[in-house]
Each structure stands twice: as C-alpha cells, then as structure tokens.
Amino acid sequence: MRKMLRPVNLNPVLMSALAMACAGFLASSPAARAADILQTYDLSWSAAPGSTASVSAVMTLDLTTLPDTSAGSNIVDSVTALTLTVTGASSGNGTFSLSDYNGPGGQLFMWTPGVTSLNMEEQLVGQPVTNQCGPGTVGWGTTPGINCSGDFDPIPSSSDAPANTNWFTLTTDGGTEDSLVLTSFAPVGVPEPMSAALLASGLLGLGWLRRRRTTK
Questions:
Q1: Cα 154 from chain centroid?
Q2: What count of other Cβ atoms lies within 10 Å of the Cβ of residue 210?
Q3: Which among 18, 46, 185, 215 is most buried, taking Cβ atoms within 10 Å?
Q4: How many other C-beta atoms can be found within 10 angstroms of the C-beta atom of residue 82?
C-alpha cells in the first residue's frame, strides 16, 4: 500500500523570505540588471546672512534613466522620490514632495554645460563644467545668480512649493518670499540595484528565521 505524504505547512515568514529571495534572483537577470540603479542625494540651500530660512531635500534618482543634461533637461521622470523641507522662512514653510513638481507645468530642470552627466557618485556642486562666461571650466553651482556654471531649477506644479527664481536659486512660497542658493547636492551611500536590495532582504529573512528555529 502506497504511503500518503502528509502536506507540509510552511511558516508564513519562511514563505515570504523565500519569495523575496526568488524575486531578487529573477530580477538579477541580465535584462533586469540594466535597470533601476537608484542613488539618493541630500540637497541643501542656504539663505543670505541674517535670514533664518533653510531648505533641505532628499531625492532619489534612477541613474539608468537620467537624460543628457549637457544642454539642459527636465530630470523629473528619473526622480523616484523627493522630500523637500522649508523651515525658518517668512512664509512657505512646510514639507513638499515629488507630486508638487511632476504635475502640469512642473519640472526639475538640470543643466551641466558641456558635460553629458556629472559624476553622480560624488558631491555635484563644484564639479567642472564648461564655463559659460569665459574660457576653461568652472565648478557646477558655484556661480549662483549668474549664467556661468549651469543650473538646477525646481519648478513647481503647485503654487506654494519653493520655486526657482534665478540660477541655482530657490525661493519659498511659490517664488515670492525668501531666496536661497544651492550649496550641496551630495550622494548618500553608493548606487544600489533594486534587485540586489530585494535579494539581500530575502536572504536576511531566511537567516533570521533559521536562527530563530535553532534557538527554540
């Protein structure tokens, strides 16, 4: 008489971890490896002496879809996440998100004269670009208010979000109040493929479950 096999009940946590690991493995195929290389940046703008206004942002870019910015491009479609915070301004304080810039009329315009793309793994402010005001090169973002070293223009689709009003200059409350200049555009960590992050999460889940079972 044939012995019937008893169904095995898998721990839900194990099933979830296995699913994440498998998803990470599938996503690491050659086709998937070519997409979704994400890099997060910390940005900051500083106001003139005597002003208490401050603007900071955390922005994540998909570097594989970043367009050629040598002649200026809207990079908003390459932004996967954005949180921009205004404090200490005379008006327009608050937290704003990607939805305030990717709607009708909004954009995140970036111009790196003569350079297809800056080195996105290092501090962007100060990297050499073609000088628009004379011979040689100049540091990107080092000539705020003057059209010499490119630009980074957050142009909102909502009326109260901070808006660009000059080269590398952001002004609170839709461009009507405190003006601040870009001082930092720095990467946080190193670029990470989404597939690698997913696979790591799955393996960590498996390791945690194995340890939990052996300690019971």
A1: 13
A2: 12
A3: 185
A4: 22
Question: Is the torsion defined by CA of 129, 47, 38, 65 positive or negative?
Answer: negative
Quote the tokens at residue 212. Answer: 């939990």
- Cα-based angle 72, 123, 130 (whole degrees, multiple of 5): 40
Structural contact between residues 124 and 185, judged by C-beta atoms closer than 8 angstroms: yes
Q: Are 143 and 150 in contact (CB under 8 A)?
A: no
Whether the Cβ atoms of residue 156 and residue 94 lie closer than 8 Å to each other: no
Distance (Å) of CA 35 to CA 31, 136, 197, 202? 8, 35, 13, 20
The DSSP code for 44 is: E
Query: Does a structural domain hold residue 21?
Result: no
Q: Examine residue 3 and state whether it is found in any structural domain, yes or no.
A: no
pLDDT digits (tens, 9 = 90+) for 176-198: 999 999 999 999 987 767 545 55
- The answer to whether residue 90 sits within a structural domain is yes
Structural domain boundaries enclosing 49:
37-188
Count of domains forming the chain: 1
100 in Cβ contact with 81 (< 8 Å): no
> 105: closest CA among 147, 76, 84, 78?
76
73: in domain: yes
Q: What's the whole-model pTM score?
A: 0.74
Tokens representing residue 44 in the block: 């900051």
Average of pLDDT values for 41-52? 95
Closest CA to 52 of 79, 81, 26, 91: 91
